[in-house]
Design brief:
The chain has 317 residues and is of the alpha+beta class. Helices cover 38% and strands 24% of the residues. The protein has 11 helices and 12 strands. The strands form 3 sheets. A 5-stranded antiparallel beta sheet has the order 7-6-5-4-8. A hairpin with a 4-residue loop joins strand 6 and strand 7.
């Protein structure tokens, strides 16, 4: 069975690499004997999707193209799948090997293990073991959100997605149609950057606020993908990290540690309250609302008004 699957994968790869135009599932099924022997369309579709994912895991760049009739086709450009010789010194190979240790999720763990084997072949010294504990600190990037894996695949395959998203100031989630660009971890939280079709603008979404299942959609992207996607800079700007003004707030004692960490000045008021001076930038009102009754905005007046408006919107549902 292992030999049969390897032969099937090889035939699929040769078809995708040898074609001058995208091939549909129907054409690929007619070209590969193992697919012709599939008992039903469902059996073939499952086999093809597994094979396609396996080839991508092995490093083959497969493009998904939709023709004018709406039929999806697949091909693998030779130029996209040709790599120059890889040369790594010991330090570079060790750093990449250590990066392979970061991922702990089941799907990514296999890819990281395979990448490590390739690094061995590319010059990673045998005595450098990134899986060996060299210190009390070990790198980890936790991913607890169920939306991470489907979004990671959608970013890779350039497939639009639909999901329910609950904003920090909203009582109920809303449907979003997004063309995903990139995923990035910032201060312990995962964010997705992409093009929001309904709003016609770039948006950043926090994965922990995505509810329900992420569903992929057919069709091409309607907006160009930027060469550089600045997820961290966008989120930092919304969180007030790039602020050039200050705001004064009252904060309940023992609450709001993230606000205290950002504060440039703190003064005890007594009666269980403190006064903080914090950087004020775009999106600070949405962040303050998350702390509910533990925060009272003193100034500026426009920030106080924005927070009150958001709280009223949440109360109305």
């Amino acid at each position: 069975m292992a030999i049969a699957k390897a032969e099937r994968l090889m035939n699929l790869a040769l078809c995708l690499l040898g074609t001058r135009r995208p091939l549909s599932k129907r054409e690929l099924r007619e070209s590969i004997e193992a697919y012709l022997e599939a008992g039903s369309d469902d059996s073939f579709n499952r086999m093809f999707e597994r094979d396609k994912d396996d080839l991508r895991e092995l490093g083959l760049v497969i493009e998904t193209v939709e023709n004018l009739d709406g039929e999806v086709g697949y091909r693998a450009h030779r130029d996209s799948n040709r790599l120059p010789p890889i040369t790594l010194d010991a330090e570079e190979a060790a750093a990449l090997g250590l990066a392979a240790k970061v991922w702990q999720q089941a799907r990514l763990a296999g890819a990281a293990s395979g990448a490590l084997q390739k690094l061995r072949a590319a010059g990673l010294p045998e005595d450098v073991d990134p899986y060996e504990a060299h210190s009390a600190l070990e790198p980890r990037i936790p991913v607890h959100e169920a939306a991470f894996e489907p979004l990671m695949l959608a970013c890779r395959d350039r497939r639009p997605v639909v999901f329910e998203y609950r904003k920090a100031t909203a009582a109920h989630p809303e449907a979003r149609q997004v063309e995903p660009w990139a995923l990035e971890c910032w201060r312990g939280h995962w964010y997705l950057a992409g093009w929001d079709r309904e709003r016609g603008a770039e948006r950043v979404f926090r994965l922990s606020r995505i509810t329900g299942r992420v569903r992929t959609r057919g069709g091409r992207y309607t907006a160009p993908v930027p060469d550089v996607v600045t997820v961290r800079e966008t989120v930092a700007g919304w969180a007030g990290e790039t602020a050039d003004r200050s705001a004064r707030i009252r904060l309940r004692s023992g609450a709001g540690y993230p606000l205290r960490a950002k504060a440039t000045a703190v003064r005890e008021l007594g009666d269980g309250w403190d006064e903080l001076e914090i950087p004020y930038g775009h999106g600070l009102d949405a962040w303050l609302v998350e702390f509910g009754p533990d925060v009272v905005v003193l100034e500026p007046a426009e920030l106080r008004a924005d927070v009150v408006d958001r709280l009223r919107a949440v109360a109305k549902g």
